[in-house]
Amino acid sequence: MSRRRKRELTEEEESLWRHVIRHVAPLKGRDGYREAESATSAPPKVTPAAPPPPRPPTQAPPQKPRAPTAAPYRPRPPAPPPIPPLAALARKERTALNRRARRPDATLDLHGMRQAEAHFALLGFLRRQAAEGASIVLVVTGKGGPPGEGSLFDERGVLRRVVPHWLREPDLRGVVVGFEPAAPHHGGEGALYVRLRRRNGR
Fold first, then answer.
1. Quick one: pLDDT band at residue 180, thresholds 50, 70, 90?
2. Is residue 32 predicted with pLDDT exceeding 80?
3. Is residue 165 domain-resident?
4. Alpha helices in 108-188 (DSSP H)
5. Is 145 among the domain residues?
6. Does residue 187 lie in a domain region?
7. Is the pLDDT score of 115 beyond 60?
8. Is residue 116 part of a domain?
């Protein structure tokens, strides 16, 4: 097989070649042709982009303070009826009792009772007599003796002092109209006439 003879370039081809190599920059690397070929055949490597920096948390706009809502209307409970003042016995009633022309409708004797026992007995007696329609009752407290008599636990004279306070208590104001010391023949300072409120309120 004979070697192919190398053909010489014409002046036009040399001028074209010189023009080409003047405007073409050589590829970097040892083998520019292979690098160019691999660059055209292999897909370009894509460098993954760095993730974007996290966004700062968005703050909700400050809420305006709500105006206080008005409390629901609640009607006030009716005021309790005023407590009537204590009244003395009528003159006609007092005169009849003093002259023995009239007797008390019922009598409660608290002699010998302790304060708690006497208080309970007094409440029950007055409410029961008012429900039965009694008008004037007699409550005997006793005058009491000089201090030092009787046993250590004797309460002589205590009921005489505390019973008037009990009769003024709010629990009995719906029952008791008034009271005052009894006549001598009914115990004098050691007893009380108690006027009760009747069912019709009188």
1. very high
2. no
3. yes
4. 115-131, 158-167
5. yes
6. yes
7. yes
8. yes
Please state which of the ranges 48-62, 83-97, 128-142 shows the lowest mean pLDDT: 48-62
pTM: 0.55
- 158: buried, middle or exposed (CB in 10 Å: 19+, 13-18, 0-12)? middle
Instruction: Give the domain range for residue 101.
Output: 91-196
CB under 8 Å to 9, separation ≥6 — which residues?
17
Q: How many domains is the chain partitioned into structurally?
A: 1
Residue 145 CB partners (closer than 8 Å, separation 6+): 156, 157
Which residues is 178 bridged to in the sheet? 195
What SS3 string covers 32-80? HHHHHHHHHHCCCCCCCCCCCCCCCCCCCCCCCCCCCCCCCCCCCCCCC
- CATH number of the domain residue 125 falls in: 3.30.1370.110
